[in-house]
Specification:
The complex is a heterodimer of chains A (586) and B (78).
Chain A (H helix, E strand, L loop, with lengths): L2 H8 L10 E7 L4 H13 L6 E5 L5 H11 L3 E5 L2 H4 L16 H25 L2 E4 L18 H18 L4 E3 L2 H7 L8 H7 L5 H15 L7 E4 L10 H4 L13 H15 L3 E7 L2 H7 L12 E7 L3 H12 L6 E5 L2 H10 L4 E4 L6 H15 L6 H13 L12 H6 L3 E5 L7 H9 L3 E2 L7 H9 L3 E10 L2 E14 L2 E9 L8 H13 L3 E4 L8 H11 L13 E4 H7 L6 E5 L5
Helix pairs in contact in A: 1-2, 2-9, 3-5, 5-6, 11-15
Chain B lengths: L3 H12 L5 H5 L11 H15 L14 H12 L1
The chains are: A alpha/beta (586), B mainly alpha (78).
């Protein structure tokens, strides 16, 4: 982005009808163009459209971190440079580079990193933080020539690495990848000594642009894709199964087909982090079944579901896989070596991300593809539910997945369902927060919460958080529902209510309402309901609760009221075994 | 190649979006309260982006008006 474009984007007036969000840009230098670019990237996306940036005082990074903590912003970007750790490592200080001063510089760096770590932990309690490690080159302080790494510089790098490793374990702290920054902003063109000495801003405009884009991407990443559908021949493996036979398809370095081995390795890694992996192949089904049974596959068969192998159109296979997964095409990547197949699938599913597998003589393209896949599916952490996802979907084929209703209580009882209701606000809540922010179909209002919104609601003394887990004889689904609300004057207000689509058709939503009435003792529940383009399963459930006269498409400004006696009239027999943990004092 | 003034005017409009064209042509650090040293640095960067020449920071204190920017640019790029 050019500076002139950034100024135009960042200069747009704020929308007075929308809440303003704040981002604390914490650095020790004059933020100048970095602030301009950061604001421009933030305003370009939906989360930052009404964003304001605040910055601190020149030369006081540590104080700026503490001031940002006190202000309690919605987001924070901490941009560290070597000069913040000891001014002698910058251009605007003349503190000396004598060999005998180097140990004192190392001591100062160690001390500064320790203090920053403590302040960072406090800031991360208030807001999500993106931390940029030093991006600028060190000045020539050590005695070695530039082509030889000095022990002094390596000791500074070691101190920094330890600091970053510890910072990465702090909840809410996300660290900019130095490898990615090197790709988009080569180290040799980052420093602008003229600007640093003339204006106290050390970055070239191109570096400020690249770093700002990365900072905002880390703070507000695109939603990760959920599923990957792969072709088999010349994609998952090298060769045509129908011609080469089960033992003739390969994916190894020995067979000079390693790019397929790397791809299988990537699929296994994605599957282990909760990505759904399915197969769409024009092939003989029996042959595919035999080939996928090979024990030397690098993507284990149990992590692939479903397998669509037949001679029909690929788009038909994709349609069936999407139905089995119960997710939209916009959450899915389709990979095939054939441009024709990609076009056929893309024509039927315009929202799908269609990617071509490279030919065997282009390992350079495979390398880029692997990183592209990691970017599309990457997530900050892997939760237990992510590991359970594929197995639970396979088990869910026993239930109707497109509707919240359908299975009879007798059938549900036969699968030995067990629901755990957890009203604790202190246990690991990352999954609950993630569910509220990524569930679309059974979602009360589609509203996304920032981490500060979430923290504020949890700190409300009248507020409650209900996290629901489920398991049956087919295995656990993990935490699949969240209700967030508060109780006041005999009324239970629900601000957020989501149920994972993996848990539809099990009467879990009825069990949740029954227990909310029970635990809070409320006469009425008032839902902060808003119809959205995608919450039709929730609308369908409310239609069954409120009756035919209720209009799902109408927003209800004062909230949708459900009296207790009405709920008891419509609630079917609920066959679940209930476990309750950490019951709130309501 | 466009004449210097209209392109320089665009740079100034980015930094001082509330000023009219006439006000920018007459602008100086004395008449525009928002024109501080950071505004001058932003103008330097925009001028570099637009004209491909980097104004010398030794002239930072002298660049106190639109007219002075235009004169300095003419000296640099002819």
């Amino acid at each position: 982005m050019k500076l002139v474009e950034a100024l135009q984007l960042g200069g747009k007036p704020l929308d007075p009808d929308q809440p303003t969000k704040t981002l604390a840009l914490v650095c020790g230098f004059t933020p100048l163009h970095l602030e301009t670019f950061l604001l421009a990237y933030a305003r370009s996306g939906s989360s930052g459209r009404n964003l304001k940036i605040s910055s601190g005082l020149y030369g006081d990074l540590l104080g700026n971190v503490d001031r940002a903590s006190a202000a309690g912003p919605d987001f924070a970007a901490v941009v560290l440079e070597w000069a913040d750790l000891d001014p002698r490592l910058g251009l605007r200080s003349s503190g000396g580079w004598l060999p005998e001063t180097l140990p004192s510089i190392a001591d100062a760096v160690r001390d500064a990193l320790r203090k920053i770590e403590q302040s960072l932990a406090r800031l991360a309690e208030k807001a999500p933080v993106v931390l940029s490690p030093p991006t600028l080159p060190l000045p020539p302080v050590a005695h070695t020539a530039g082509w030889q790494a000095s022990g002094f510089v390596l000791s500074l790098e070691a101190l920094l690495a330890g600091f970053l490793e510890r910072a990465a374990t702090l909840a809410n702290v996300h660290i900019v990848s130095r490898q990615r920054l090197e790709e988009v902003s080569p180290a040799a063109s980052r420093l602008d000594p003229r600007m640093e000495l003339g204006a106290g801003f050390p970055y070239s405009a191109a570096h400020a642009d690249a770093l700002a884009k990365l900072l905002w991407t880390v703070l507000d990443p695109p939603a990760p894709k959920k599923g990957l559908i792969t072709d088999l021949d010349n994609t998952f493996w090298s060769g045509i199964l129908g011609e080469a036979g089960v033992t003739g398809v390969t994916w190894s370095q020995e067979d000079h087909t390693q790019i397929h081995g790397l791809y299988q390795q990537m699929l296994a890694s994605l599957a282990a982090s909760g990505v759904l992996v399915g197969v769409a192949s024009k092939n003989d089904a029996a042959l595919v079944q035999e080939a996928l049974g090979r024990t030397d596959l690098l993507t284990p068969l149990h992590s692939i579901f479903p397998v669509e192998a037949h001679w029909g159109a690929k788009s038909e296979s994709v349609a069936r896989i999407l139905e089995a997964w119960n997710i939209g095409a916009d959450s899915v990547v389709f990979l095939d070596d054939s441009a024709l197949e990609l076009a056929e699938v893309q024509a039927r599913f315009p929202a799908i991300t269609a990617l071509q597998f490279p030919s065997s003589n282009r390992p350079d393209e495979l390398w880029r593809l692997l990183w592209h896949l990691r970017d599309l599916f990457g997530r900050p952490q892997i939760l237990e539910e992510d590991r359970l996802r594929a197995g639970s979907l396979r088990a869910a084929t026993h239930f109707s997945m497109t509707s919240t209703t359908g299975a009879s209580p007798a059938f549900i009882a036969s699968v030995e369902p067990e629901i755990t209701l957890d009203f604790s606000k202190t246990t690991d809540l990352r999954r609950a927060f993630e569910l509220v922010n990524k569930t679309n179909q059974f979602n009360l209002n589609g509203r996304r919460l920032t981490e500060s919104d979430w923290t504020n609601k949890l700190e409300d003394p009248d507020g409650f958080l209900l996290t629901v887990s489920y398991q049956d004889k087919f295995g656990p689904l993990g935490r699949i529902a969240v209700a967030l609300g508060r109780k006041s004057a005999g009324v239970c207000f629900i601000d957020a209510w989501v149920l994972s689509c993996r848990a539809f058709s099990r009467l879990i939503e009825h069990q949740i309402l029954r227990h909310l009435f029970l635990i809070t003792g409320a006469r009425d529940i008032i839902f902060d309901y808003t119809p959205t383009a995608r919450n039709s399963p929730l609308q369908e459930f409310f239609s069954s609760v409120f009756g035919a006269e209720w209009k799902a498409s109408e927003a209800v400004p004062d909230g949708l009221r459900l009296p207790r006696n009405r709920f008891e009239e419509i609630c079917p027999e609920l066959p679940h075994r209930i476990k309750e943990t950490a019951i709130a004092s309501h | 190649m466009l004449p210097i003034e209209p392109r320089l005017l665009t740079c100034f409009q980015m930094v001082f979006p509330n000023l009219s064209e006439a006000q920018i042509l007459a602008a100086s650090t004395d008449t525009v309260p928002a024109w501080d040293s950071m505004a001058t640095v932003k103008l330097f960067s925009l001028v570099e982006e637009e004209f491909g020449v980097a104004p010398d920071f030794e002239y930072l204190d002298e660049m106190t008006s639109f007219t002075r920017f235009a004169e300095r640019l003419r000296e640099q790029i002819g």
